[in-house]
Amino acid sequence: MRIPTVYGVIERRILVNYRVRRDVLARVLPAPFEPKVVADDWGMVGICLIRLKEIRPRFWPARWGIWSENAAHRMAVQWRVGDEWREGVYIPRRDTSSWLNHWAGGRIFPGVHYRAEFGVEEVDGRYDVGLVSEDGETRMRVVGEVVDAWPRGSLFETVAEASAFFEAGSLGYSATKKAGCFDGLTLHTEAWAVAPMRVLEVSSSYFEDRERFPEGAIEFDCALLMEDIPHEWRGEEMLKRDLINDDELLTGARTLRERTADYQIDDGTLTEAKNEGRL
């Protein structure tokens, strides 16, 4: 069973990135994920603050699409499939302004989506984006501005190096209500372009939790901005931890495709994207 292509536009995407000691990140990650090392035994985590518009099955008119502010806590990971290493992101938490996304999370969309109130101000290249979740578990804010030069202090020496790191993979696995089960989603973009940001203020209740990330184990690294990017989302098969063995990676029988079969709009084949972006 095929699901319709979910298509839309990334109106704004801010990637707020932290470097974290590999050993600390390894303790946070569930199996089968392991940290993807950037440099000097540091891993990379962060928050994707993304505003989506015109989200719809590909064959629906754009005016029928939905709009939402969303946040995804992300961790750059790798995992082994037989003798092959794969890379992507593990997403322990998603927050959204949309009641539809909240309801559909874990049903149609991958992973649980928690409801949150977002505050956004964007003026002349300056961005102030924050959120407070309704369950009280997540608070975060970033204030920054677009700049021409790559700010000093990042593990990445240039914006091109940072861009390549985040573009390298497209597959993300989200935590679900079932321990050891992860919903998969791949992002395909028609273009990939990022701009460096200078961050004036940043805070995150999740990454500032000292029981999870002890003092000195995590530091802000960099931020990137993307705007007006046409894209597609494609569901992947559920990953189940207890079905992984030394020889192969088995996937759950009930995939996102099957769970969304009732929402089939068109039987046409999916259109191949020109490039792949990262979740």
Any key phrases for this structure?
279 residues, mainly beta, 9% helix, disordered C terminus
Helix and strand sequence = EHEEEEHEEEHEEEEEHE
State the helicity in percent bands.
Answer: under 10%
How big is the Rg?
Answer: 18 Å
Assembly state? single chain
Calculate the mean pLDDT score and round it: 81
Tell me the number of helical segments per DSSP (H or I, 4 or more residues long): 4
Describe the biggest sheet? 14 strands, mixed
Shape: globular
Structural class: mainly beta
Tell me the fraction of residues in β-strands, as a range.
over 45%
How far do the termini sit from each other? 24 Å
Low-confidence stretches: 244-279
The count of DSSP E runs of length 2 or more, i.e. the number of strands, is 14
Write a short abstract of this structure.
The protein is mostly beta strands. 9% of the residues lie in helices and 52% in strands.
